[in-house]
C-alpha cells in the first residue's frame, strides 16, 4: 500500500522559514516525480513545485520562485520543500504527490497517482 506522509507544517511569522518533508512508502520512490501542491480555504488546489525522479529537473510556480526549493533524497524515500521568506498568502494545506513518470515534473493535478493527506502551513502577518 502506497503512503505519502507530510510533516513539518506549522505556524510561522511572515518572513520566516519552514521545511516540509514527504516520506514515501510502498512504491519505488526513484521511479516517481514528486510534486508539492497547496490549497487555501475557498480556493482550488494549485501546483507549487515539482522535481523529477533524479532531482535534476525542477519546476516552480511563479508565486514561489526564488523563495521555495524542492529537493529529494532517493536513499531515504523522502521529498522536501524548503520554504523561505514566507508570506501570509502562502497559508494553505500543503500536499505532496507522486507521479509515475520519467519525464520532467508536471503541474497538472490529474497527472499524479498518489497523494498525501496534507500538512497545514499558517503564516501570520
Provide the low-confidence segments as ranges: none
How many strands, what sense, and barrel or not for the largest sheet?
7 strands, mixed
The average pLDDT is 97
Broad structural category = mainly beta
Short description:
By secondary structure, the chain is mainly β. The protein is built from no helices and eleven strands.
What does this protein look like?
The chain contains no helices and eleven strands. It is mainly β. The protein is globular, with a radius of gyration of 13 Å. The mean pLDDT is 97.
Highlighted features:
globular; 7-stranded mixed sheet; about 0% helix; single chain; about 120 residues; 4-stranded antiparallel sheet; mainly beta; about 50% strand
Per-chain topology:
Elements lengths: L2 E5 L2 E4 L4 E8 L7 E7 L6 E6 L6 E3 L7 E6 L4 E6 L8 E8 L14 E2 L3 E6 L1
Parallel strand pairs: 2-11
Antiparallel strand pairs: 1-3, 3-8, 4-5, 4-9, 5-6, 7-8, 9-10, 9-11
Amino acid at each position: 500500500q502506497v503512503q505519502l506522509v507530510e510533516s513539518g507544517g506549522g505556524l510561522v511569522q511572515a518572513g520566516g522559514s519552514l521545511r516540509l518533508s514527504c516520506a514515501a512508502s510502498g512504491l519505488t520512490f526513484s521511479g516517481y516525480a514528486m510534486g508539492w501542491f497547496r490549497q487555501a480555504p475557498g480556493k482550488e488546489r494549485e501546483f507549487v513545485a515539482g522535481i523529477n525522479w533524479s532531482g535534476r529537473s525542477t519546476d516552480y510556480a511563479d508565486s514561489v520562485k526564488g523563495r521555495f526549493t524542492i529537493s529529494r533524497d532517493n536513499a531515504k524515500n523522502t521529498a522536501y520543500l524548503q520554504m523561505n521568506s514566507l508570506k501570509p498568502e502562502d497559508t494553505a494545506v500543503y500536499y505532496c504527490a507522486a507521479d509515475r513518470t520519467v519525464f520532467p515534473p508536471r503541474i497538472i493535478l490529474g497527472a499524479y497517482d498518489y497523494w498525501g493527506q496534507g500538512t497545514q502551513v499558517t503564516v501570520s502577518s
